[in-house]
Write a structure and sequence with these properties.
With 275 residues, this protein is an alpha/beta fold. The protein is built from eight helices and five strands.
């Protein structure tokens, strides 16, 4: 494509400078040796100046033009690369990503895009090699292990990793409330709140299919009644839950708490007082 045109312009510019010095050297020699008449020498100098200036202007314009063209090409290449991000993310498993990277590393035009696909292909090859190592390790553990609980746990973990590598996509799967049962951990400020709160939440846990793992007493908690959530994508579900809590007489406000990595649809209900 346009790769290298800037370099060509650069070397053309260097050539013009070299020719200019050579021309000045020739004129200096002619003047020193008095081998040419002054009138002819003046004409020769004028012609040389005209040539040098004309060529310099042409090459400067070419360099600037090439810079704009290369920049335009880079933008197009980035747009093309972004176009295929969804395709890469949707590819199921390492083998599909391998075939995809091989294809684009072959058909992409020479330049940054092809280089990026070649680098990605190498990365996929490394991932496949690690998966093969895990499969070998599973076979070895299965042969050498007999009724070993710890080893079996490791085998199960490796099998899960291999399965994910072979069938999973890079795109994060969006978890919906129907895919996992929401869990609500309850923090209360005193033990006498537990029985009353259990009565309030009993119907709600059935209608919204929510699990209550247990109650924790945070002695002396005096903050607001809050429903804390840790994933912004779960905001709609939280607002619906808050609305239902308010409707049964428990005044609660939603509060997003960033920076914590918890399981999907896991919430905390903090209660300081029940009116």
């Amino acid at each position: 494509m346009l790769n290298g045109t800037g370099a060509i312009s650069f070397w053309l510019g260097i050539s013009v400078i070299a020719l200019s010095f050579a021309g000045f050297g020739g004129v200096y020699y002619l003047v020193k040796s008095n081998s040419i008449e002054n009138e002819k020498l003046d004409k020769l100098v004028e012609i040389a100046k005209w040539c040098i200036v004309s060529v310099a202007i042409t090459i400067s314009a070419t360099i600037v033009n090439d810079g704009f063209r290369e920049r335009e090409q880079e933008v197009k290449e980035i747009e093309m690369f972004n176009k295929y991000i969804d395709t890469v993310m949707a590819a199921k498993g390492e083998e599909q990503r391998k075939l995809l990277s091989e294809y684009f590393a072959t058909v992409s035009p020479a330049g940054p895009i092809r280089d990026a696909w070649i680098n990605y292909e190498k990365k996929v090859d490394a991932q496949i090699a690690r998966t093969v190592q895990k499969e070998d390790e599973i076979q070895k553990l299965q042969k050498d292990t007999l009724n070993n609980v710890a080893a079996q746990a490791k085998i199960d973990k490796l099998k899960q990793e291999v399965e994910t590598a072979k069938t999973g996509s890079l795109a994060p799967s969006k978890v919906e409330p129907g895919d996992v049962k929401p869990r609500l951990f309850v923090q209360i400020s005193s033990a006498d709140q537990k029985e009353k709160l259990q009565g309030i939440l009993a119907g709600l846990t059935k209608t919204m299919n929510i699990t209550l793992p247990g109650f924790e007493i945070i002695q002396g908690y005096k903050g607001k009644n809050e429903l804390r959530y840790f994933d912004e994508s779960e905001r709609d579900f939280v607002n619906n839950l808050v609305s239902n809590l308010n409707s049964v007489g428990l005044t609660v406000s939603p509060k997003y708490v960033p920076g914590y990595k918890v399981k999907p649809f896991q919430f905390e209900l903090w209660i300081s007082e029940i009116k």
